[in-house]
């Protein structure tokens, strides 16, 4: 995309040194390098490769989605500063330390784990910062709306009871992006991640996975749509079990890694099994319900912020 490349030479719009402005949010610049880093982290590729990827990108809509994510981050951060609730570096440090402790890894091992997902520590810090900022803004603006009572958790359990069947069989369909295990497959992995993002966009609002297959095939010809008969859920890959455990029949997952590739899976139906006791899942369900309400609250907040913001995207 010639317009993206030309942004490298755009004139500065503020006193700080920048490499090219792709958007202005209430006068605050979003730069080309920030978009490049967002792409690198999202697709798990080196920054240099992300630069080449963006220069060769012909899908304007995809570029605009990455820019929009950064625009929203600026809106959230600016609003928090206004309220005096800016997220500090110490908060980010404590959160990362907690994640390392939960995974029982030291600094070097943690860096290796991030690298497997194509992330550097600075990229991961940015992700944590964004999560903390969004959480802080939701608590400040919509605390009552995301608070969950025990009765609401019990109702949520009743609505989602099929997810908690022990010994059940499940029938699924999935988009499968096979990846080679050797180092030569790094480029394929990058293309697979991007194709999976495109496929996800194509199957929004309950559209069939076959639509995602068509959207992904031009970018990753090896993608396959697979389905089968009922199988015991416990026989599936651990990562697949985890994702399926979050889904009701008819729902689909986001892209995830498992076994020898990437998957987007949809649960078609379940049968059999014995229901778990509410007490066993109450704590995790309460957190999940609060997270879902937080996601909706964030969407509402961003709509409000965008209405009153001055946003100038320069593509």
From TrEMBL:
- SUPFAM superfamilies reported in the protein's UniProt record: Triger factor/SurA peptide-binding domain-like
Q: Which residues form the PpiC domain?
A: 148-282
Its top-level enzyme class, in one word, is isomerase
Q: According to the UniProt entry, what is the EC number of this protein?
A: 5.2.1.8
InterPro entries linked to this entry: OMP_Chaperone_SurA, PPIase_dom_sf, PPIase_PpiC, Trigger_fact/SurA_dom_sf
Signal sequence residues: none
- Which keywords fit this entry according to its UniProt record? Isomerase, Signal
| Record organism | sediment metagenome
Q: What is this protein called?
A: Chaperone surA
Q: Name one GO molecular function term.
A: peptidyl-prolyl cis-trans isomerase activity
**What start-end ranges are recorded for coiled-coil regions in this protein?**
none
Q: Which PANTHER family match?
A: CHAPERONE SURA
